[in-house]
Amino acid sequence: MKSKKELIRIVRDKEGVTSVDFTGKMAGRGAYICKSMECFEKAKKGKRLEKAFEARIDEVVYETLRKQLEGNDG
To answer: How many CB atoms lie within 10 A of CB 10?
Structure first.
């Protein structure tokens, strides 16, 4: 199991807004994915964030994650 510092946190706040939490301190329900494109692709394809939050995830969240992960790879 990886530590929280090795993961990216996605948070859904009281208003139902889902966003990427780079600080790990935003208020709301959180879900985590590892910092790799492979994990990202599995999470997106399997709708794992939708299942975790029981809600639709905006494409902007996925694009933010993708950009962050692409920055880590290069």
So the answer is: 26
Which helix (H) or strand (E) element contains residue 11? strand 7-12
Residue in 6, 61, 72 with CA at minimum distance from that of residue 37: 72
User: What ranges in 1-74 are assigned the alpha helix state H?
Assistant: 37-45, 48-53, 59-73
Give domain limits for the chain: 4-73
DSSP-derived 3-state class of residue 47: coil
The answer as to CATH 1.10.340.30 being correct for domain 4-73 is no
pLDDT per 10-residue tile (average), the chain, 74 residues: 88 94 92 93 95 94 92 64
